[in-house]
Amino acid sequence: MTENLQEQLYQRLREGLLEGRFKPGDRLKIRDLAAAWGTSPMPVRAALQRLVAEGALEGEPQRSVRVPPMTRERFKQIYQVRMALEGMAVEAAVGNLDSDALEVLEGCMERMDLAIERRDVQAYLTENSQFHRVLYGACGNPVLLRTIETLWLQVGPFFNRLFTEADLSLRLNDFHEDAFKALREGDGKAARQAIEQDLTYFGQVLLNLLDLDYAQARSG
């Protein structure tokens, strides 16, 4: 029973990180989480320790952990690996996506468009995470999928920054639509190119924001 509860809490925290429900620097206190979820501290501590071991969280004094702050160098390193692995996963997924999976992807895109119109950050990030996870989940390589998700655990909290630029929202879904069209046509190379363009465009936006953070910190 304890192991099942620990797994449930781990998955809940994991989902929150993948979907950007936590932000860099957020502190997660064991007692607060246990109280919020109506459980004892032990399974919460075990779930958090698993995420610390995966590099998604880092330990702090006084029995708390935090979402690590994002640095330019760290983001760049993760981004370079994501480009290689996620492109590989997309190309491998072509041919494995049935009509049900394509319908899920299309639904994600529709809800992302709606979230953009409403400027609902969390709704967009949730659907964006679902879109990519369904797509990569069809790659047929569990090792590749697990590695990609481990990287997403580290960058997911930073995706909140995408909505800090007023004119950015107009392009948030363009590359998903290009990838979906290619997937429906069975064109793996075009689908990979669209996802790599997605990563390149938004990766550069986030790197620019990190540069701005650094400049402001130095001037302050």
Q: Could you list some keywords that capture this structure?
A:
220 residues; Arc Repressor Mutant, subunit A; Four Helix Bundle (Hemerythrin (Met), subunit A); 2 domains
Kindly state the mean pLDDT as a whole number? 89
What are the secondary-structure elements, in order, as H or E?
HEHHEEHHHHHH
Percent range of helical residues: over 70%
Major sheet: 3 strands, antiparallel
Query: How many strand segments?
Result: 3
Number of helices: 9
Secondary-structure-based class equals: mainly alpha
The termini sit apart by: 51 Å
Going by CATH, the homologous superfamily of the largest domain would be: GntR ligand-binding domain-like
InterPro entries: GntR_C, TF_FadR/GntR_C, Tscrpt_reg_HTH_GntR, WH-like_DNA-bd_sf, WH_DNA-bd_sf
GO molecular function: DNA binding; DNA-binding transcription factor activity
Keywords: DNA-binding, Transcription, Transcription regulation
Pfam families: FCD, GntR
